[in-house]
Amino acid sequence: MPASRPTKNQVAFAFACVYLIWGSTYGAIRIASLHLEPPLVGAMRSLLSAVLMGIICLVRGTSLRVSRQAAWQLALVGVLFMSVNNVLLIWAETKVATGYASLIIAMIPIMVALIETALPNGETLNLRGWLGTLLGAVGIFALVWPSLRAAIGDRAAGLTQRSGSLAGFAILMVAALAFAIASVLARRFHFQVDTFVATAWQIGAAGIVNLTLALAGGTLRTAHFTLVGLSAIAYLSIIGSVVGLTAFTYLLQHVAVTKVSTYAFVNPVIAVLLGIFIFHERLSPPEIAGSIIILIAVATVVLSRTKPVPADTTAQPAMGE
Prior knowledge:
By secondary structure, the protein is mainly α. It is built from 13 helices and no strands. Helix 1 packs across helix 4 (about 100-105) and helix 2 packs across helix 3 (about 70-90). The longest helix has 30 residues, at about 125-155.
């Protein structure tokens, strides 16, 4: 990363990487999940990303050694990011549309704000932040209402075929909560570790957990590897994690955090558009209304901070996508 003052083109290119790459990871996850089971997708992505991060550290001459305390803290955050969040997201995308999934995951900044407000010495929400949170709840209800109404109708008729979307919603909410908790922990642990070293430890720990899940579930033994599935995993590892993280870290070093945080409500738009054009996904009018409300709510909360938050480059929002 250049030490000199960044040019507008460099900043614009970094933003384009964060917006487009991270927005496209939802589609790559969908493709990978069509060919391999979620734990195996998570294991292969995490382990490949960890190896690449380790190589970057070696090339940069950066030691991968960390203290024992930092090791378990990084491992905990990494498992929440890339095991609980990422594997659940992959699983959820086998049940709901990619755009729908991205909109639920977009609620993470609101969850982080609520957790911070509840914790001692946390960053409290101002009035605009609370209004954004309330608006987000309205958006979530609007987004899930069509599925909820259909499920109620199916239950009354003795049917169960449309219960998958509600299950997907519940899985996504747990995934988003896990990422929010990990984000808060990462900030409070105050890691004094190089960004790429921290990322290698986080993703590596998650890779071990994901591989254990894959082996325990027998998914490795029954896996049917295809070029398309492996290509999707390679894209998630190389482009999504390594290139996307590098661009994000560059922005944190040169651009205000509030501007960088705009990824939270731009990525879902990219994911929805790609879902429409690639997977022919469609949102119902109530879901479209809920989507717009959620994006406005996230923007309101992200931009409502009354004091600057230190940039924590070890808590990468893209890792869970």
